[in-house]
Amino acid sequence: MKGTVLGIEGTAWNLSTAIVNEKDVISEATDTYSPPSGGIHPREAAQHHAKYASAMIRKALEDAKGKGVRPSDIDAISFSQGPGLGACLRTVATAARMLAITLDVPLVGVNHCLAHVEVGRWKTPADDPVTLYVSGANSQVLAYRMGRYRVFGETLDIGLGNALDKFARSAGLSHPGGPKIEQLARQSKNYIPMPYVVKGMDLSFSGLSTAATEALKRHSIEDVCYSLQENAFAMVVEVTERALAHTEKNEVLLAGGVGANTRLREMLAIMCEDRGASFYVPEKRFMGDNGAMIAYLGLLMYGAGDTLKIEDSHVDPNFRPDGVDVSWRE
Ligand code: ATP
Ligand code: FE2
After folding, report:
1. 177 Cα nearest atom in ligand 1
2. What confidence tens digit (pLDDT) does each residue in 8-27 have?
3. pLDDT exceeds 70 at position 325
4. Most buried residue, 161, 188, 206, 276, by CB count within 10 Å?
5. Atom of ligand 1 nearest to the CA of 168
6. Domain spans in the chain, listed from the N-terminal domain onward
């Protein structure tokens, strides 16, 4: 797919703009909202995005100029249409519409979850994988079949990352909790029984997070972190494995911020090896939320003629990946 697209990501904390073409990422500029304390305040995150949107767009354009790509070379503007926090999505959509009008190019609305999958297919050898997407707010197992990405399993309550962060907060660990839990878990091999909740193909993490907080009263934090990780990761590996078996695919792709975890990678690698499947992990910059993935899926959709009229470019905080007719794959 030939072309040059500027994409804007801003579903949650991260505001990120990037310019890509079919060969590579040309430029990327990111600014992350960090709340003074506690969790995310959607309105404040949106205000952050509003404040920095033009600076990040300008920076991506400036850096691209240094590489010989001018604003007039841009063929389309893409943005995260959802899922995410409504206030943040609306802010980013407004910036994207303005830019598309200014440059007089088409607008492309991108599903955030599918952008994680597509950037992984671009930046790893994965061709037709089962994708495990685990971030703060999202936990899904996705795979392509007959014109759509199907959701084979997903969380019924909170995302895996949020479950880790919630427990971490209760244990007095600073945000984000995931990396701290990983460090502490390394210091134990003492498993304490914890809830393991897989319902059909779906997952639930909220009870596990609460049980871990409770367990702190009787056990060391290292033992609790170890056991929490073992259960949470075994749950997502189980659903990923069943999706592999069901779809008869032979590749697994990892996506989302929780994918940074070494123990999770190890468990997935073991499962894949047992099944004779290949396991792919993109570079860190393409794992968490990033503008490049939005620009890249924007490029694929632009190439397929899958663009939006300004009046149809509303955002959807609950935008489901399995609701998208995939225009860009055979
Ligand atoms: P999304 O809108 O996609 O849900 P997000 O804002 O949650 O995005 P990500 O960067 O994809 O962003 O993921 C952040 C989550 O990843 C946090 O919950 C954090 O605790 C978790 N995380 C980061 N590093 C690790 C790690 N090493 N082990 C476990 N969890 C981790
Ligand atoms: Fe994400």
Report:
1. 20
2. 999 999 999 999 999 999 99
3. yes
4. 161
5. 20
6. 4-116+286-323, 128-281
Q: What pTM was estimated for this model as a whole?
A: 0.97
Hey, which of 133, 135, 268 would you mutate to test ligand 1's pocket, going by the most ligand atoms within 8 Å of its Cβ? 135
Q: Measure the CA angle with vertex 190, ends 184 and 195; round to 5°.
A: 90
Average pLDDT of span 182-202: 98
**Domain boundaries 4-116+286-323, corresponding CATH code:** 3.30.420.40
The CATH fold of domain 128-281: Nucleotidyltransferase; domain 5 (3.30.420)
Ligand 1 cavity residues, CB under 6 Å: 11-13, 84, 135-138, 159, 161-162, 164-165, 176-179, 182, 256-258, 260-261, 288-289
Res. 100: pLDDT tops 80: yes
User: Average pLDDT for residues 52-71, to the nearest whole number?
Assistant: 98
Q: What is the pLDDT of residues 200-220, one digit of tens each?
A: 999 999 999 999 999 999 999
Q: Please, which pLDDT band fits residue 1 given cuts at 50, 70 and 90? A: confident
Name the pLDDT band for 39 (thresholds 50, 70, 90): low
Q: Hey, how many other C-beta atoms are within 10 angstroms of the C-beta on 200?
A: 9
Measure 54 CA to ligand 1 centroid, in angstroms. 26
Residue 13 alpha carbon to ligand 2 centre in Å: 10
In sequence order, what are the beta bridge partners of 105? none
Angle at 243 between CA 133 and CA 201, to 5 degrees: 80
* Ligand 1 atom 7, closest CA: 136
d(C-alpha 40, C-alpha 44), whole Å: 8
> Which of 230, 258, 264, 285 is the best mutation target for the ligand 1 pocket, counting ligand atoms within 8 Å of the beta carbon and taking the most?
258
3 exposed, middle or buried (CB, 10 Å; 0-12, 13-18, 19+)?
Answer: middle
**Ligand 1 centroid – CA 102 distance (Å):** 34
Amino acid 35: pLDDT = 79
